[in-house]
Amino acid sequence: MQKKPLKLTFQLVPDGCWYTNLRSALPKEVWDRLRRAAYARAGGKCSICGAAGRLEAHEVWNYDDEKHIQKLENIIAVCPDCHAVIHIGRTSLLGKEAQAQAHFLRVNECTQSEYHAALGEANRVHARRSRFEWITDISKLKDLL
Q1: Cα 89 to chain center, whole Å?
Q2: Is it the case that residue 19 has pLDDT exceeding 80?
C-alpha cells in the first residue's frame, strides 16, 4: 500500500543544528528582506495550507545524510498553525501539540493513525541525524534576496 503524499510535514532539525537559524544569524534588515520576499512569492497566503492572515518565514533545509550537510533550499511563507506543525518538537514543549495535530489532520485530510505514523518516521530520522555534526550551506541565500 502506497502512502499518500502529505502537504504539511514535520521538519525536525537535528540537535546539533538547533539555534542556528537565519533570523538570528543575519542582520535584521537582511532577514526582513528575505521574509518579505517569501510573503510576496506566496501572494500573502500560507505556502502550505493557503490561509490568509499573519505569516511567518520558514527556512526549508535539505539534509545530505552521507556528507552531513544541512543546505538551505528556500524560505517560504507559512501561517502560524502550519509553522507549529513543522516544528512539532517546540510546539509540544509549549503544550500546544493537540492544536497542531488537529491542523495536521485538516490540512492533510488524514487520520490520527497517519499523523502518528508520520510523526514516528520524523522522529526516527531526527534521532539518526542528531548523531552527527552538520555543516551548514547557505549558498542559496543569494538567490532568495
Answers
A1: 11
A2: no
Length of the chain: 145
- How far is it, in rounded angstroms, from Cα 49 to Cα 6? 11
What are the tens digits of pLDDT across the range 31-70? Answer: 999 999 999 999 999 999 999 999 999 999 999 999 999 9
Q: Count CB atoms within 10 A of the CB of residue 101.
A: 19
User: Alpha-carbon distance 109 to 30, whole Å?
Assistant: 37
Other CB atoms within a 10 A radius of the CB of residue 20 amount to 14
Q: What b-and-e string marks burial along 72-99, b requiring 16 or more CB atoms within 10 Å of the CB?
A: beebbbbbebbbbbbbbbebeeeeebee
On whether the pTM is more than 0.85, the answer is: yes
